[in-house]
Amino acid sequence: MSQNTGASYAAAGVDIEAGDRAVELMKEWVKKTRRPEVLGGLGGFAGLFDASALKNYERPLLASATDGVGTKVDIARQMGVYDSIGHDLVAMVMDDIVVCGAEPLFMTDYICVGKVHPERVAALVKGIAEGCVLAGCALVGGETAEHPGLLGPDDFDVAGAGTGVVEADRLLGADRVRTGDAVIAMASSGLHSNGYSLVRHVLLDRAGLALGARIDELGRTLGEELLEPTRIYSLDCLALLRTTEVHAFSHVTGGGLAANLARVIPDGLHATVNRSTWTPAPVFDLVGRTGSVERLELEKTLNMGVGMIAIVPQESVDVALATLADRGVDAWVAGEITDRGEHTTGAALVGDYAK
User: Fold this and answer.
1) CA-CA distance, 208 to 36, in Å (whole number)?
2) CA-CA to 196 of 20 to 30 Å: which in 7, 69, 179, 345?
3) CA 216, CA 285: separation in Å to the nearest integer?
4) 255 and 155, same structural domain?
5) Which range among 41-50, 222-231, 315-324 shows the weakest confidence by mean pLDDT?
6) Which segments of 15-144 does DSSP mark as H helices, in order?
């Protein structure tokens, strides 16, 4: 009798059993993100969230965002470290949602791999779950897709989508910003999750630095610095909203500080941020110096040490800074809102960075 040589899913490179094992490994981490509104468990076709809690709102607005972490995943792949990238994913999604004043509610993830390694997938979900706890939201579901032939066995990418809610009359944005408002900067934890195509090009491709090499000015290896998780500001921003008046937030991501701040500045007003109020972490100088990258190019690509901005009235400054200090967030007054005058853009950086 001839052996059956017919095609199969496994022969094509998709391992369903490995996928099932990955689900079992991640269940304990997903459970840690559970909120009272979550119904059912992991493994259903859809995540369920009880929206009856929104009855307490006069006019609830749902806020939604989706994002990934860009080419930072290649650093994680090379380092063989998979959990920290999940923090990055949650930060990129939920910190966009909180900018409008919304409370993060729930998130779903999408993990695409060349080959399912259950422990790696579980580590990715572990990091996402830990990030969701830090953001105060539930991880209600996700998808792991195996794409042999399109991705190498060790290649992967992650993306996520989140939902939050805000009362309509508490929606933050440019329409609330006024002349004289203070611009409060919140320190970033490092590069966060933007600009890694430039960073990899400069430090790895051109300079040939090894991820395992210890860099004295960084105080750790290059790989450890590049994998530093993105700070999640969601609960910090919500704490500000509970304790004082806030007119707008700006999440500093792709495009840099000035471009993202300009998104919440109304026509006719201008935000001036003084570089002399802070010193960027050494990694930013390392990238600029090693690649001979001009300052303006760095500032268009990287966060330069500021991950989130709060625009508040002057009378709210002291309470805002005290609230953030109590939460362990390094924050300072970095600028102010003025009439546009001669300015043609909504925000600009002036002066030189403190040494």
Assistant:
1) 50
2) 345
3) 13
4) no
5) 41-50
6) 16-31, 72-79, 84-98, 118-135
Between CA 141 and CA 271 the distance in angstroms is 40
Q: How far apart are CA 97 and CA 242, in angstroms?
A: 17
- CA–CA separation, 351 and 211 (whole Å): 33
Q: Are residues 134 and 192 in the same domain?
A: no
What distance in Å separates the CA atoms of residue 306 and residue 135, rounded to the nearest whole number? 19
Cα 89 from Cα 21, distance rounded (Å): 23
Looking at the structure, do residues 202 and 334 belong to the same domain, yes or no?
A: yes
Query: Cα(109)–Cα(85) distance, rounded to whole angstroms?
Result: 12
Strands 347-350 and 269-274: parallel
Same domain, 126 and 70: yes
* pLDDT tens-digit map of 75-122: 999 999 998 999 999 999 999 999 999 999 999 999 999 988 888 888
Shared domain check, 187 and 98: no
**What is the tens place of the pLDDT at every residue in 211-244?**
999 999 999 999 999 999 999 999 999 999 999 9
Q: Which two tokens stand for residue 70?
A: 């860009």
Same domain, 190 and 160: no
Query: Measured between alpha carbons, how far is 91 from 103 in angstroms, rounded to an integer?
Result: 14
Q: What is the DSSP letter of 305?
A: T
- 183 with 162, same domain: the answer is no
